[in-house]
Automatic annotation (TrEMBL):
Its EC number is 1.-.-.-. Residues 52-281 form the ER-bound oxygenase mpaB/mpaB'/Rubber oxygenase catalytic domain. It holds the Pfam family MPAB_Lcp_cat. One of its GO terms (molecular function) is oxidoreductase activity. InterPro entries: MPAB/Lcp_cat_dom. It comes from Streptomyces flavidovirens. Keywords: Oxidoreductase. This is Oxygenase MpaB family protein. It comes from the Bacteria.
Length: 297
C-alpha cells in the first residue's frame, strides 16, 4: 500500500511531539532552545562522548535501568520514597531529571553550574531515617556516588546495546570521564573515570545493596503500573523488559524480576532495537535544524 509523504510526516510529528512533551514537559521547546542556542562556553565540546550517549534514544532504556539499579541501595531508596514524589508526580520528576541532563550536557557552563547548585541545595535538605533506623542524607558523598555510578553504568550499557553509534573502548572511558565532571560538581568524591574503575566501584557497593519493600514496590510501579494511556502501555512494556534484561543477575534477583535468557536474547532484544529506532526516527530534528536531537532536552 502506498503511503503518502504527508501522512508519514504527520505520524512522525505527532509521535515525536508526544514523546518530547512527556520527557521535557509543557515548556520543553523553550527550554531546549535556551539550552542549545544560548551563546557561551560549555562543559563539553560537540565531539565529546557524553553528547553522543545522552542524545540517543537508548536513554529511554538506560533511564529505566538506572532507576531499578539505584533502588537497591536502601538509603537511596528511602530518600526517594520519602522525598522525591515519584508516585504523585512521576512525569514532573522525569522532566526535571531530563532537563538537568540536558543542561549539564549541552548548556552553557554558567547554566550547568546553576543547575548543579540547585540540585545540591535540594540534596542538603533531604534527610531522614529508614524503617530500619538508619539515617540518610542525600548530600552524603558516598550515597551520591552510588546514584552516579548506577546512572553511568546504565546509560552506557543501554547505549552499547541499543545506541545508533556504540562507543569503542576509549570512547567508553571518555564517556565515564565526562560524567565524572558532573559527578564531582554534585559532590561525589573521586568519581570513576574508566570502565575498570566503574566496575570496581560497583563491586565495592554490592555488600550494601538489598531490595527493601520500598524498592520492590518502586519496581512494580515502574514496570507494571506506569501512569500511561492504554495505547502507550505495550511499547512501554517492551522498553521496561529491555531495561530489566540488561540488569546483572545480582541486581534482578533481590527485586524478584524474572530471567528468561533465550527469550530476552531474541524477542526482547529485537523489540528494544525496533523501539529505539522508532523513537530516534520520530524525535529527529527537521532537516533545517542543527545540533542534538530533541530527546537531549
Amino acid at each position: 500500500m502506498d503511503v503518502s509523504a504527508p501522512a508519514v510526516s504527520y505520524v512522525r510529528e505527532r509521535l515525536g511531539s508526544s514523546l518530547f512533551s512527556r520527557v521535557a514537559g509543557p515548556a520543553g521547546r523553550d527550554t531546549r532552545a535556551r539550552i542549545h542556542e544560548t551563546p557561551g562556553p560549555r562543559w563539553f565540546a560537540p565531539d565529546r562522548p557524553i553528547r553522543t550517549v545522552h542524545g540517543d534514544a537508548s536513554m529511554f532504556i538506560g533511564g529505566l535501568r538506572a532507576l531499578l539499579l539505584q533502588s537497591l541501595h536502601p538509603l537511596a531508596m528511602a530518600a526517594v520514597a520519602a522525598h522525591s514524589g515519584y508516585r504523585g508526580d512521576p512525569w514532573g520528576r522525569l522532566q526535571r531529571t531530563s532537563t538537568f541532563l540536558a543542561v549539564t550536557t549541552y548548556g552553557t557552563a554558567q547554566d550547568a553550574q546553576e543547575a548543579v547548585d540547585r540540585v545540591r541545595a535540594v540534596h542538603e535538605r533531604v534527610r531522614g531515617t529508614t524503617a530500619a533506623g538508619e539515617s540518610y542524607h542525600a548530600a552524603d558523598p558516598h550515597l551520591l556516588a552510588w546514584v552516579h555510578i548506577a546512572e553511568v553504568d546504565s546509560f552506557l550499557c543501554a547505549h552499547q546495546l541499543y545506541g545508533a553509534r556504540p562507543l569503542d573502548a576509549d570512547g567508553c572511558d571518555a564517556y565515564i570521564a565526562d560524567m565524572s565532571r558532573v559527578a564531582a560538581a554534585l559532590g561525589v568524591s573521586d568519581p570513576p573515570r574508566t570502565q575498570a574503575e566503574l566496575a570496581e566501584r560497583l563491586r565495592a557497593y554490592r555488600p550494601e545493596l538489598r531490595a527493601t519493600q520500598e524498592a520492590r514496590e518502586a519496581a512494580r510501579y515502574i514496570l507494571l503500573r506506569p501512569p500511561l494511556p492504554l495505547i502507550a502501555r505495550a511499547p512501554y512494556a517492551a522498553l521496561a523488559a529491555n531495561a530489566v534484561s540488561t540488569l546483572p543477575p545480582w541486581a534482578r534477583e533481590p527485586l524478584r524480576l524474572p530471567r528468561l535468557p533465550g527469550f530476552e536474547r531474541t524477542c526482547v532484544r529485537l523489540s528494544g532495537h525496533a523501539l529505539t529506532r522508532t523513537i530516534r526516527w520520530a524525535m529527529a530534528p527537521p532537516p533545517r535544524a542543527a545540533g542534538p536531537r530533541p530527546a537531549d532536552s
